[in-house]
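User: Hey, quick favor. My workstation is busy. Could you predict this chain's structure for me?
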Amino acid sequence: MIDTHAHLDGCNDPAAVVARAKTAGVTRIVTIGTGIDSCRAALAIAEQHDGVYAALGIDPHQAGSEEATRADELRDMLSHPKAVAVGETGLDNYHHYATPDEQRALFDAQIALAAELGKPIVIHSRDASAATADALASFGGTVILHCFSSPDLLPAALDRGYYVSFAGNVTYPKAGELRDAAALVPVDRILVETDSPYLAPQPVRGRPNEPTNIVHTLDVLAAARGEEPAALVAQIDRNATVAFGLGTDGP
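Assistant: No problem, here it is.
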């Protein structure tokens, strides 16, 4: 199994989290940087563990801060062999930590960086579906929609061949619309993640999340899609390998 999006630098004792993941059969993890210091921490964790990779970006919540002026610092870090994607980056009109213009400028800078380096891009989009689709319209590289929660973005995602990644919130009782969306994603474009330490799936909701819990989300996705869990696990592993250009070694 693979967890395509975890914030290991935000977890208590990342080494222990990775060890528990290995015991549970989670053989690969993409850990996410959300700012320059977070990116450095993500790379350090990836360096310490086989099967752990890093996506490096500055998230939209920091677009109005000094952090947004440091996007150029990502370029050198993204040359690291364990750095497999730009992000997470994107737009968020729910929390309002930065203005839409500030967010778009930071997003555009990271889209350009992904295009320049030929890297996939990991997208955070909340209450910003139209603007997200507009920003990505000319990007010809690989797009991963992280923690998918915007069914109105699905038509563009399907039309453009984006990867769509589902997190623990797809397991929540009131998330029927997300499960319906998951059933529509082509088999070669679906991914799964924990977004650890956030969004623990329903059976462990309210606790800090970690990659071991990905089994709960996989079970719900398989049921929503009418697929066997083992077959879906194998397919998602293949999808992630292609999307991120990953190796097959385990932690």
